[in-house]
Hints:
It is built from 17 helices and no strands.
Amino acid sequence: MLGIAAPVVVVQVGLQAMGFVDTLMVGRLSADALGGVALGNFYFYNIAILGMGTLMALDPVVSQAIGAGDQPAARRGIQRGVLLAVVISVLVALAFTASGPALLLLRQPSEVVPLARQYVEISAAGLLPFFVFVVLRQSMQAMLSVRPVLVAVVVANVVNVAANWVLIFGNLGAPALGVAGSAWSTVLARWVMLVTLLGVGWGPLRPHLTGSWRMAFEWGPLWRTVQLGAPIGFQWFFEAGAFAVATLMFGWLGTVPLAAHEVALSLASLTFMVPVGFSVAAAALVGQAVGRADLPSARRHAAGAWVLGVGFMATSGLLMLSFPGAIAGWFTADAAVSQMATSLIVIAGVFQVFDGTQAVASGLARGTGDTKVPMLLHLLGFWGIGVPLSGWLGFRTSLGGAGIWWGLTSGLIVAALLQAWRVQRRLRGDISRVRVEDGGAGH
């Protein structure tokens, strides 16, 4: 599990790094340019996350087929994933055309919105490689072949940095495009990332991407794949959406609270990548075990994921609780921002274990083919409890920004405990393989 999870963590950080580098480099231009790229990335991922989650249907479909030795089913699953990636790219691109009005409706600064809209609209040119890469990445992880994915992400980040330097600032005789140059750099990097993955990973991918695609176009299995994956997309959307609403709430409180929130959230997002790595590894290993009807092995892999993922988050939580001020000082020299960020980092330390718990539980659930109930549990935790409580504590009590985070923490704790209960309950029973061809699913 460590062998699979470690490169996945690097991949996750690498994918986040593209947006981070865009923000960092364009920040040298002006505050408006910095806000435009940050807001553009905010819109991109909160819209794209539904499609990304839907494509996670490949976790149980491909891993269980490989575990069962059913290569034709694995091939058809991957091919259907590519077809869905094309459709999702078109739908998300249409949603990108509404970015300007949507951001204004969310009461974002009018001087920044045009730049954010420009960034988002150019980013649409990179949607197809982005979503196809997600399909191939999930497929290779299900095959337990992660090195090609790691190489592709590293190469893409190098390209992104170099292209940003050329296109943002007009180096090497290129026009200085500013925010637009940053967007085009990311588009180029995403196409390079896909081509690199196809090149480096062609050996394991070739049997699945060549040959007849006729059966991949059959409507019934294609629709059942969507039904399996859409709940994952909504589950991710409910979680990401809750933190997005929290960010908007902090914006209403003022510049200092918003900056402090970004510091604490950046830290929490970074540590979260580690249990996400174990979540991906768990989905692949448990899925293969379910596919070969080896439930004792699935339970052992689940136990390993719990120990490693939650254990890491317990350690990071202790560090946050012990040195919150020092950690805040790594991110900002502003005394007011640092003071508030310190209080939020303490809260982040409290929820680390629960964040790791729900991350690992989500991967285990995907590996078993359980997607609908986890979606509902996330809806209850984050939107039935977390968001309403955040609004009440943040604006109806004296807690302010700390209240917003305590509200989110409460919802996260509920979601984590419910997800853990659900997964443990399933692993104690019998789990059947997911079969989209005949409409079957795990029970």
